[in-house]
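Progress report, Aim 2. The chain analyzed during this reporting quarter is listed below.
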Amino acid sequence: MGEKEARQVYNLEGYIYLFTGVVIFLIYAVRKRGLSGIGPHTIPELDQESFTALKKLLDTAYERTLYLGTAFLFLAYVTLSGWGFETKFLFIAATIGIFLYNVPPRNRVMKLLMFNGVSWKAVKERGIRF
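Predicted structure tokens for the chain:
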């Protein structure tokens, strides 16, 4: 593969990271805005303490989504700028780490809901996304 073809593939990869980062930012904005609309009436099965914990966990999950979007934007910048493989690998590792960092609050949300007898289907029908 020639240098020109390699550069085009590199740019395509960078644009994919850029697109992914922007989409993740949009997901964050929509979910964060929807968080204010979630009240105790949305999930009446939860007591006040459980509901407060749920809101806090959802907020944490949404914040970490923002971090993931930022990581993809940095990865896009590094890729499109043509920085070395080592730098790109560092940002790929950071992005994977942030993705994994986002899993525990989502698991805790599911455990909290399941413990209180709220099914995944009921949560989806009520418009709660995480």
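The radius of gyration is 19 Å. The chain has five helices and no strands. These observations will guide the mutagenesis work planned for the next reporting period.
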